[in-house]
Amino acid sequence: MQYLVENTDEAIKIGIRGVAQKGYTSTATVMRLAKKLGFEGFREMVYSFRNEMNQASNTLPEELREQIHFIYDMQKLEIFFRILARRGFVCIQAEGHSALLAEYLEKKLLGNACIVIRKDYLGADTIVRNFRDQLDAMVIISKSGNSIAGVEVAKKCKKAQIPTVVFTGNARSELSRICDTVFIIKDSHPFDPENLQANYFFGYCILAFEEIFAIYNHQI
Predict the structure, then answer these.
(1) In percent, how much of the chain has pLDDT > 70?
(2) DSSP designation for 57
(3) Three-state secondary-structure class, residue 115
(4) Residues forming a β-bridge with 182
């Protein structure tokens, strides 16, 4: 248990067999520990431990805070898990550099048999009018969290009771305030709206997508 708490990232990389070897024990013992703590399995346990580290990031030394790129809790991931489980219907809104992330997420969801449309294909009013009863979620990707188009579609979806999800680098943004589910991605340069400086936000966002799918695939 002490090893898992102090070496969560390593435990995720080496898996249950590697952890068992580190603890000079069996994989069955590690699984019993997970069950005893109320988790379905090893992966859910270690990701939960890492999540606790993310939530406590404000109390960590600066050099450790720098390593955290994706802040979430397991409860927030449930909306994605439900969509993936029922091969649901999602709309994605993003502009500028974030549009590349929308295309990436679209392909990932399509590869998992979900139905996906992009907001740039249709106006916000058309999407809400035509799909309000079918959409499982409107996913918005915005580094600043203050995209005019993103805020507009979030407000319309909120009014139509369509669940809204945002991936943003700004926890105090308008979209963070409006949307139902908020994922905060580390933004290296929040005061660089034109993205002229090197910024890992977009890479971290793709890592966040991959982590969500990895957690889901290890739960089913």
Answers:
(1) 89
(2) G
(3) strand
(4) 166
Judge contact between 158 and 164, C-beta under 8 A. Answer: yes
Average confidence (pLDDT) over 205-213: 92
Alpha helices, DSSP H, located in 8-147: 8-22, 27-36, 42-55, 62-65, 74-85, 98-111, 124-131
Q: Identify the residue whose tokens are 């990031």.
A: 57
Q: Which of 166, 136, 163, 127 is nearest to 150 (CA)?
A: 166
Please report, as a single letter, which amino acid is at residue 43: R
Return all residues near 26 (Cβ < 8 A) that are at least 6 apart.
20
175, 148 contact by CB (below 8 A): no
Averaged pLDDT of the chain: 85
d(CA 22, CA 213): 27
132 Cα distance to chain centroid? 23
pLDDT above 80: residue 211: yes
Number of residues that this document lists for the chain: 220
DSSP state of 119: G
Q: What is the DSSP string of 129-157?
A: HHHTTT-SEEEEEESSS--HHHHHHHHHH
> Which is more confidently placed, 100 or 189?
100
The number of beta carbons lying within 10 Å of the beta carbon of residue 120 is 13
Q: Which amino acid is at 13?
A: K
Nearest to 200 by CA among 89, 67, 103, 107: 67
Provide φ and ψ at 199, rounded to 5°.
-140, 125
Cβ atoms of residues 141 and 93 within 8 Å: yes
Higher local confidence (pLDDT), 54 or 170: 170
